[in-house]
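Backbones bend. Our protein:
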Amino acid sequence: MTESIHHLNLSADEVLTSTRSVRKRLDLERPVPLEVITDALEVALQAPSGSNAQGWHWIVLTDPEKKRIVAEHYARSFAAYAAAGAQARAANPPKDLDTAEKVASSAQYLADVMHEVPALVIGAIHVPGGELPEGNQAGVWGSLLPAAWSLSLALRERGLGSAWTTLHLVYEREVAEALGLPENIRQGVLLPVAYTKGTDFKPAKRAPLETVLHVNGW
């Protein structure tokens, strides 16, 4: 491991309970060395995958033009998503409207600055033939997404933040073509990555466990 990589020395529980979707607190001005991302990826590759196939691939974008292409597709997808969300909130206001509006504002900010984020990381997986199976696809994504979340956790421990998003997948084929991805490589997640403005992230408010826990059946 490179000695220049700084660790926050958080406990496992602290990392797990304080890794947030970071948007407005991403530091757009501070460069992110590629070695920091690859160091975190070395940790992520310890995640499980079906039959230990390790069919994942990681596309790290730092080139401004490549980031711009992905950001433009993301912004286009987000615009439709945000419009639908605004209509839904107007028709059926959520119980915590203030929180919903803050989340919407944060998401809009990320769409506006996606091209400025120091690094974009796309997690993808090899799919024979390139066609996803019909029905439940847990077997495919279960071999990629645990590693992608491990990457988010490892980045947090190194003082960086990310925001899990899949909105660009509306234009998956266009992004794949722009990045030269083979047809049998399917994208599963986009992580904008940057150092964070401060590292004092706390556990988020969640519904009580008893409202979602089922023992020995529903």
Notes: Helices lie at 12-18, 34-44, 64-91, 97-113, 138-141, 145-157, 172-179. The first strand starts at residue 56 and ends at 61. The radius of gyration is 18 Å.
